[in-house]
From TrEMBL:
GO terms for cellular component: mitochondrial inner membrane. Keywords: Membrane, Mitochondrion, Mitochondrion inner membrane, Repeat, Transmembrane, Transmembrane helix, Transport. This is Solute carrier family 25 member 45. Solcar repeats lie at residues 4-83, 97-191, 199-286. It is a multi-pass membrane protein. It comes from the Eukaryota. Its main location: mitochondrion. It comes from Erinaceus europaeus. Belongs to the mitochondrial carrier (TC 2.A.29) family. The keyword Transmembrane applies.
Length: 288
């Protein structure tokens, strides 16, 4: 089993993550709290109340977990393609796999990474939604002191299953959209690369960026549902399940609610995924 693919997935994921985290915090807040007028308003308020640090809340944990999550995504994708087409990463330039195979392998990677991602993502979302300034004397302390404390609280208050709150929505969000992710990437690379050659760095950056956007645009409706279900554990009996969350959100806030965070998701997706794919391809070439 080519282990390089897992290693490359890890490093490239970490680079992308740091770049994108501030956008991600704004997105999560817009999706789950109704006190912001829009992207700018949320950015200004976060900065005023919490300083720049506010944008990096909940990041330490994803940095640790991206090792697992992105390496599972890229490692499983690449190994699924190997199983489907019997070609290794290097051979694939000369014998490109069909888009159906790319899609199926992408979905496989997506499904498996969602399972690993679920608890980490839940903790990230809970921490990002704490809007208390870090050191406010006399003010109420935030509910969670950090990722480990947050995990311990969820375990105590909601049980082990609590850690997987929103996991179904996450799986439904990621399985098809990561298929779309790799298909878009492959398609754009092939458009701008002469046959049989390795795509240039510029091509990889652009293809990776648009793959990220395509994947996030299609993922946004379920991303909203997922984030809301993850927060719901806090208020007792908030949602009965995914359908209930969809119906009640739509009734109370209109269909537009499912597109919340679309713009910021896309703005984040381009640089994050451009860097992710560029470092992934470079690492694999360097190790070949
Ligand atoms: C499938 N979905 C669009 C939800 C995620 C795509 C993941 C790509 C990358 N890790 C990122 O954070 O942008």
């Amino acid at each position: 089993m080519p282990a390089e693919e897992f290693m490359a997935g890890w490093v490239s994921g970490a680079l992308g993550l740091v770049l994108g985290h501030p956008f991600d915090t704004v997105k999560v807040r817009l999706q789950t709290q109704n006190k912001y007028q829009g992207i700018m308003d949320c950015m200004v308020k976060t900065y005023r109340h919490e300083s720049l640090l506010g944008f990096f809340k909940g990041m330490s944990f994803p940095i640790a977990s991206v090792a697992v999550v992105n390496s599972v995504l890229f490692g499983c994708y690449s190994n699924a393609l190997l199983a489907l087409t019997a070609t290794s990463h290097q051979e694939r330039r000369a014998q490109p796999p069909s888009y159906t195979h790319v899609f199926v392998a992408g979905c496989t990677g997506g499904l498996l990474q969602a399972y690993c991602l679920a608890p980490f993502d839940l903790i990230k979302v809970r921490l990002q939604n704490q809007t208390e300034p870090r050191a406010q004397l006399g003010g109420p302390p935030p509910r969670y002191r950090g990722p480990v404390h947050c995990a311990a609280c969820i375990l105590r208050e909601e049980g082990p299953r609590g850690l997987f709150r929103g996991a179904w929505a996450l799986m439904l969000r990621d399985t098809p959209t990561l298929g779309i992710y790799f298909v878009t990437y492959e398609w754009l690379c092939r458009q701008y690369t002469p046959e049989g050659q390795t795509p240039s760095s510029a091509t990889v950056l652009v293809a990776g960026g648009f793959a990220g956007i395509a994947s996030w645009v299609t993922a946004t409706p379920l991303d909203v549902v997922k984030s809301r279900m993850q927060m719901a554990g806090l208020e007792r009996g908030a949602y009965q399940g995914m359908l209930d969350c969809i119906v009640r959100s739509a009734r109370q806030e209109g269909l537009g609610v499912f597109f919340r965070g679309l713009l910021i998701n896309s703005a984040r997706a381009f640089p994050v995924n451009a860097v992710t794919f560029l470092s992934y391809e470079h690492l694999l070439l360097a190790w070949a």
